[in-house]
Amino acid sequence: MQFHSSERIGLFIDGANLFAAARALDFDIDYRRLLNAFSNKGRLIRAFYYTAMVEAQDYSPIRPLVDWLDYNGFTMVTKPTKEFTDSNGRRKFKGNMDIELAVDVMEMAPHLDHVVLFSGDGDFRRLVEATQQKGLRVSVVSTVQSSPPMIADELRRQADLFIDLYDLIPLVSRHESRDDEDDASGTDEEDDWAESA
Q1: 11: closest CA among 37, 21, 29, 20?
Q2: Can you give the CATH number for the domain in which 54 is found?
Q3: How far apart are CA 53 and CA 37, in angstroms?
Q4: How many domains does the structure of the chain reveal?
Q5: Is the four-CA dihedral 15, 18, 24, 26 of positive or negative sign?
Q6: By the 8 A CB rule, do 103 and 36 touch?
Q7: pLDDT of 136-168, one tens digit each?
Q8: Deepest of 29, 50, 92, 126, by most Cβ within 10 A of its Cβ?
Q9: CB 14 within 8 A of CB 154
Q10: Residue 3 maps to a domain
Q11: How far is it, in rounded angstroms, from Cα 82 to Cα 80?
Q12: Distance between CA 25 and CA 2 in Å, rounded?
């Protein structure tokens, strides 16, 4: 199943999950190239990026990325992390964005034909099912190339299309950057990942 050029596409990126998948595959994502890759597949309506941030720190390592995405075509959805102490007395931070992502998918559904979810979290299986019941197609981007796989089997089975992040490396990796003109024009590599998925 491929993307159709007339489809209205929405990207919903679980930032922590995508970062973990890219790290497991040992590459860095070029978010401009990612946006271009999906813009070439149809009519990209909106690209959401979800992440929790530690607000108490003077400097957050994720702040430059959040600012860049905010100025370059992504709709940023952030919230402060919650701090807690685990059973061993270690300070930990928690910041789950699942509810925000799910609500946005449901609110955007009337304006989209195809939802692309960047996450392997099995908790999203029911969201994918509910979105499909509204008549939308849902693609899930994660990877089975890592050990262990980063996608829950039930989420992969529920999706209309599974796209392995590994197959997108030539298109979205910072290591294999091409000129912006090449990104915007479409490539044989792009056709390959759509056809093989």
Answers
A1: 37
A2: 3.40.50.1010
A3: 27
A4: 1
A5: negative
A6: no
A7: 999 999 999 999 999 999 999 999 999 999 999
A8: 50
A9: no
A10: no
A11: 7
A12: 24
Report whether 105 contacts 129 (CB < 8 A).
no
Do the bridges between strand 161-164 and strand 137-142 make them parallel or antiparallel, or are there none, so unpaired? parallel
Alpha-carbon distance 152 to 122, whole Å?
Answer: 5
pLDDT digits (tens, 9 = 90+) for 4-39: 999 999 999 999 999 999 999 999 999 999 999 999
Query: Does residue 2 lie in a domain region?
Result: no
Token duo for residue 171: 């298109």
| Lowest mean pLDDT, pick from 18-27, 69-78, 106-115, 175-184 | 175-184
Question: What's the one-letter identity of residue 137?
Answer: R
Tokens 């931070």 correspond to: 93
Predicted TM-score (pTM) of this structure: 0.83
Could you tell me if residue 187 is inside a domain? yes
**Contact between 117 and 139 (Cβ < 8 Å):** yes
Q: Is the peptide bond before 148 cis (omega within 30 degrees of 0)?
A: yes
Q: In this structure, what token pair is assigned to residue 84?
A: 């807690």
- Look at residue 167 and tell me if it is in a domain: yes
Domain that holds residue 61: 8-196
- Strands 91-94 and 82-85 turn out to be antiparallel
